[in-house]
TrEMBL record:
PROSITE patterns: VOC. Residues 5-128 form the VOC domain. It comes from Mangrovactinospora gilvigrisea. Signal peptide: none annotated. This is VOC domain-containing protein. Gene3D superfamilies: 3.30.720.110, 3.30.720.120.
Length: 151
């Protein structure tokens, strides 16, 4: 495993990877650890590090590398944990993300929202706000089903 990597690293294919690198830096505070552009001008591989220590990789679509960009709803949702999800959500929407759900406190004790970035990737932006037992989570889920208050 390469130095600085974890056992599972998402690789995002983004049509316009150079712009996506800038977007992830602006919105999530990602820093480019490495980047390799091909002779055709596309990003073959870039590694980004998020402030929370997570690593993600991305590149442009490439037939030679077998990489195709997916559309919205292609079965993958990425969660980014951050100290102030409201601020990150606001930056994301201001920078062109489509809001799927506004920030709200959830039954798990996490405040979260859902967005689709300009490159078609779905994200949950989250901040942990309270520790909640499994029993309390089950109670809150049951209350949601009954139309009651989850808090």
């Amino acid at each position: 495993m390469p130095k600085g990597s974890t056992g599972l690293v998402p690789f995002l294919v983004a049509d316009g990877a150079a712009k996506a690198i800038d977007w992830y830096g602006e919105v999530f505070g990602a820093e480019t650890a490495s980047r390799f552009d091909g002779p055709d001008g596309i990003v073959y591989h870039a590694q980004l590090r998020l402030p929370n220590g997570c690593v993600m990789e991305l590149g442009d679509p490439s037939e030679a590398l077998g990489l195709a960009a997916g559309g919205a709803g292609h079965g993958v949702v990425l969660t980014v944990w951050c100290p102030d999800m409201d601020a990150v959500h606001g930056r994301a929407v201001a920078a062109g993300a489509r809001e799927l759900s506004a920030p709200e406190d959830g039954f798990t004790g996490d405040r979260m929202s859902r967005i689709v970035d300009p490159y078609g990737h779905r994200w949950v932006v989250a901040t942990h706000v309270e520790d909640v037992s499994d029993e309390e989570i089950a109670r809150r889920i049951a209350a949601m089903g009954a139309g009651g208050d989850v808090a």
